[in-house]
From TrEMBL:
This is Uncharacterized protein YcnI. The lineage of its organism: Bacteria, Bacillati, Actinomycetota, Actinomycetes, Mycobacteriales. Residues 1-26 form the signal peptide. Residues 169-196 are annotated as: Disordered. Keywords: Membrane, Signal, Transmembrane, Transmembrane helix. Residues 35-168 form the YncI copper-binding domain. The keyword Membrane applies. InterPro entries: YcnI-copper_dom, YcnI-like_sf. It comes from the Bacteria. The chain crosses the membrane at residues 201-219.
Length: 223
């Protein structure tokens, strides 16, 4: 007479749930770092730095990014890097002699396609503050606009459209930035992927625990 162990279906259900958790963690993680980031190797208070903005195309409608406007903290000087397929315009205040923003506009047929990103660089004089933010407006070819201007949430959580930020050092060797891409781009990508790696490890651990549970059930069934 066969022996029926009702614990086996439960174990299989647990394994299926763990598998679902693992798949979800593997697919949701990368979205957390698909934002506009600012980075610099020489960001110090009151100094001039080359700031790089990494801009991904996040359109879910197949539209290209065709314009990018970055607000500057009324800096004393700014220069943009020549970028093929794009024109740059600085918004200067003639009375104060400061620069309030920079806008890049793509030439017809150009822009950032879906699933790609572009790097926009500007040499800018930074303010004498601990941190500096760069509210950014991203415009798509279908007319949609995304504003990257939200501060960190209470407790340090990340909002849906975080403002690109840099933490400024106090000397030539003090470029220790942290918020939203405030490390060089290679390190930035490593840091951005770390939540995804953590999620994968947790999902893998759940699978192992579920598999061990099934093994125990099978052993008890045979005994």
């Amino acid at each position: 007479m066969p022996f029926h162990d009702h614990r086996l279906p439960r174990a299989l259900i647990a394994l299926a749930a763990a598998s679902g958790l693992y798949v979800a963690s593997a697919t949701v993680g990368p979205a957390a770092w698909a934002h506009v980031h600012a980075s610099s190797d020489s960001a110090v208070r009151g100094g001039t730095a080359l700031v790089t903005f990494q801009v991904p195309n996040e359109s879910d409608k197949g539209a290209a990014t065709t314009a990018l406007t970055i607000a500057l903290p009324n800096v004393g000087s700014a220069r943009t890097e020549a970028m093929p397929g794009w024109t740059a315009k600085l918004d200067r205040d003639a009375a104060s002699g400061t620069v309030g923003s920079v806008t890049w506009t793509a030439a017809p047929g150009a822009g950032i396609p879906v699933d790609q990103f572009a790097l926009f660089r500007i040499s800018v004089q930074l303010p004498d503050t601990d941190t500096v933010s760069f509210p950014t407006t991203q415009t798509y070819s279908d007319g949609s606009v995304v504003k990257w201007d939200q501060p960190l949430l209470p407790g340090g959580g990340e909002p849906e459209h975080p403002v690109p930020m840099l933490t400024l050092g106090t000397g030539p060797a003090g470029a220790h930035e942290h918020h939203h891409g405030s490390a060089p781009i290679d390190h930035q990508l490593e840091q951005s992927n770390s939540p995804d790696n953590t999620a994968r490890l947790l999902g893998g651990a759940a699978l192992i625990v579920a598999a061990l549970g099934i093994c125990l059930v099978l052993v008890r069934r045979r005994t």
